[in-house]
Queue: 4 jobs
Job 1
Amino acid sequence: SYRLELPRELRKRGIHNVFHASLLRVHEPNDDRLFPGRMETQVFDLEDKDNEWAIDKLVSHKGEREGAIFEAIWKLGDHTWVPYSTIAHLDVLKAYLEALGVDR
């Protein structure tokens, strides 16, 4: 197994930094035309609370509690993953959790 130094954005998304040698490959940059929405820069920092209008809905999540990340569909149709810490104040998160029957 190998321990890699990952960018802060990937660690924030919950990606573990230890990989078995059989999983490692030579890095090839993402082709956004073939695989849209998979660039590390597409995990948005939403520190500005005025960005609430941009997320249409949340459709899934990975992880638990404050470590969770959520798949967001933006009003323009893009799909990205956003960390809980940046959307905790948004009404769209409240609606998503209510639909799941989760009390905050």
Job 2
Amino acid sequence: MVVCGLACWRCRWLLPLLLGLAIIMGIIALAGRGWLESESEPYVQQASLWESCTRGQGDLNWSCESLMDYGWGRAAAATYLVGFVILVICFALAVIAFSIEILRFNFVRGIGGLLFVVAAFQIIGLVIYPVKFTEEIPLMGDNMFSWAYGFGWASTVVVIGCAFFFCCLPNWEDEVLGNIKPTYYYSSPERAPYLN
């Protein structure tokens, strides 16, 4: 005998957990120094969301300049940071929403809408950065956008996925709350003659 139905109420913490994962990836992106790095040796260029560092081929010390001196640097950092702050707020709201016994589904849909706003802010920051960086900062050697920049995009992809789930979750309100009876399917009619 197999019980079919959406047992989401037992796994209701999956969406807040995914938002927590997006927050962790966002922290790595904000703090990481691997937004842009030299592709191969000698490693002469390295950049974060906040600063760009270069060094000579024989030099061991990095010479850094702040990207906050550029308007586009402030714009990229501000948009990504605003998206991150709203993401933290959405995480707190999701924990509150799934903690209460009677789930308010309009509240959940509002969290989904805010997550789309988060994704928009993060995408704007993640697009401004490489376009303006390559236009205005002199690059030395072969460079690539690296791991911290990738964490920024990974956080954004998780946020977009969670936004869709939060917006669509109210469509399955009865299944999530357990208000419908499960449907039982049997493998063969011979094993359950009492159903006829």
Job 3
Amino acid sequence: LHLVALNSPSSGDMRADFQCYQQAQLAGLTSTYRAFLSSHLQDLATVVRKTDRYHLPVVNLKGETLFNNWESIFNGNGGQFNVHVPIYSFDGRNIMTDPSWPQKIIWHGSTANGIRLTSNYCEAWHTANMGAMGQASPLKTGKLLDQKVYSCSNQFIVLCIENSFVS
């Protein structure tokens, strides 16, 4: 399952699932991609199909392993990953080093176990209001699900996950 970033940072007001779908298509990727975000309808932990959560590794755009499987992201350790394995955007840039993402922080709106935090997900990702809050994770911590709260007016990284594997 590929974990890929959108080609530019976003505030808390985003149509992330649509952008993930659109940018994956433009990059020539044929699988379905969903935002790596909890939403008003779904917890982050359940975005990937149940049949694909245990046996497929989570990899970057170049196939390098970030996690042994989807479930291992939500074991309570905050989604610890190897910071030496880059995360790429759909257009192939390393989000950890590219200046297009000045703040190396990802939106997620979830607990460390991937459950939605309705108080901290930018009103279901529909507001960039400075007073609204969103749960996010500074990537320098080496965790995708670190528990930090930021104003929804911030422009942070949005990740997309291939939510169903097509062989």
Job 4
Amino acid sequence: MDFIDKTVSDVEPVKPPPVESTSFKLVQDVKDLKELAAKLRDANEFAVDLEHNQYRSFQGLTCLMQISTRTEDFIVDTLKLRVQIGPYLREVFKDPTKRKV
């Protein structure tokens, strides 16, 4: 029960815009990762999905990160950017004022 946000009252769900009008960005280099971090700093909320592979590995690897704001979708190549993701995205993920779904 500690994970439930008790400060949120009954909120009317907001329908997403049509897929055709939602922009998409494939994030494969540091420049795009910087732009993504800036956009997430400006957002109040965002959704995250991770794809993980642990086949023949005890530790496993996060292979893909999908992030969506209300207006944009991003696919992050976590294998290519594995060293840079933490420095650029750590602060927005740690920020308790941002709602992560």
